[in-house]
Write a structure and sequence with these properties.
The protein is built from seven helices and six strands, in the order E-E-E-H-E-H-E-H-E-H-H-H-H. With 187 residues, the chain is of the alpha/beta class.
């Protein structure tokens, strides 16, 4: 287990932990997993899973999403920077000599699940497998079903990351999201 920093989109420093199996890598390299935590969380929430997978022969990287934990940058609600960060995690693992670059998967919970899903669908990160858990395929539809805001949920989610670590554009749109106004702009 090793703590390190990985450059995310735009060079943003992302605090990460690398877990490696104690057994030697098989011929062709070990499979690997990038793990993405939920909104307001940190990579520590993924450590039990990461340690378990490492004992099974996987190389695993967990990281604090931008604006979370020890990582730099501002949280931007799974926007272009977060997509670039997902690609950076894939590239980090693919560049490791003990990893089989054709066997890199991604696991994410909630916000992390959305990042995993969107990194595949939008950014085209070539994960070998993805496991998005407790997440959405359309954040807009999840928060505004039939264009009706889930105001309480939006307010609660909006409080999980401090304003000082949130992209100002997200903060600017938060009142509209809670009130259900300017929906076309929010979409």
């Amino acid at each position: 287990k090793q703590d390190l920093t990985i450059a995310g989109a735009g060079g943003t420093p992302l605090a990460a932990t690398l877990y490696e199996p104690t057994s030697p890598a098989p011929a062709g390299g070990s499979p690997a997993i990038a793990m993405f935590h939920g909104l307001g969380g940190t990579r520590a929430s993924m450590s039990v899973f990461a340690e378990d997978f490492a004992t099974q022969g996987y190389v695993v990287v967990t990281f604090d999403a931008r604006g979370h934990g020890e990582s730099g940058g501002l949280w931007g609600l799974d926007g272009p920077n977060e997509h670039g960060d997902a690609r950076a995690m894939y590239d980090f693992l693919a560049a490791r000599p003990e990893v089989n670059a054709t066997k890199i998967g991604a696991f994410g919970v909630s916000l992390g699940g959305g990042a995993v899903w969107n990194s595949t669908a939008i950014t085209k990160v070539p994960w070998a497998a993805i496991v998005p858990e407790a997440t959405w395929t359309s954040l807009y539809q999840a928060l505004f079903p039939q264009d009706l805001p889930k105001s309480g949920l939006i307010a609660q989610l909006g409080s999980l990351v401090p304003d000082a670590r949130t992209d100002p554009e997200i903060l600017l749109r938060k009142p509209d999201a809670i009130a259900g106004t300017n929906l076309a702009d929010l979409h």
